[in-house]
Known about the structure:
This protein is α+β, with helices and mostly antiparallel strands. It is 29% helix and 37% strand. It has a domain at 2-114: Gcn5-related N-acetyltransferase (GNAT) (Aminopeptidase, 3-Layer(aba) Sandwich).
Amino acid sequence: xxxxxxLEDPHWPEVWRLIEPVFRAGETYAVSPEITQAQAxxxxxxxxxxxxxxxxxxxxxxxxxxxxxxxxxxxSHVCNCGYIVGxxxxxxxxxxxxxxxxxxxxxxxxxxxxxxxxxVSTNEGxxxxxxxxxxxxxxxxxxxxxxxxxxxxxxxxxFKRLGT
Length: 164
């Protein structure tokens, strides 16, 4: 059983331990592998509208996501989210649960659509999951991501209307 709730400050160290290895690996996020904890906190907690964590029954943090407007002004009705699942929880439905939760939260917050701006093409599991959850690939950015092992790979833009 996994519970999703808003991130509170005392949980930030656990969230940092979860997201730091993903950022350091440099394989799925367009974030410097040298990002500091303070920079990550700003990106993951301070800038977004809201940040959530997924906790297992034993209260361990197994995933996290943020939600924010994708653009300002005339584009502010479209949100953007970022998701990270801990290595030990991958393949167990946590990302699906967080994405479903994020869509409900986005709708509650007044967003009309969700857009993922930069999904690295080698992150095939994420792309497959987002497509299974109703997201469409609406654009491809050739060679836009410098993957540390595979060189320059494409990134895709994914989009889904929310509500009716």
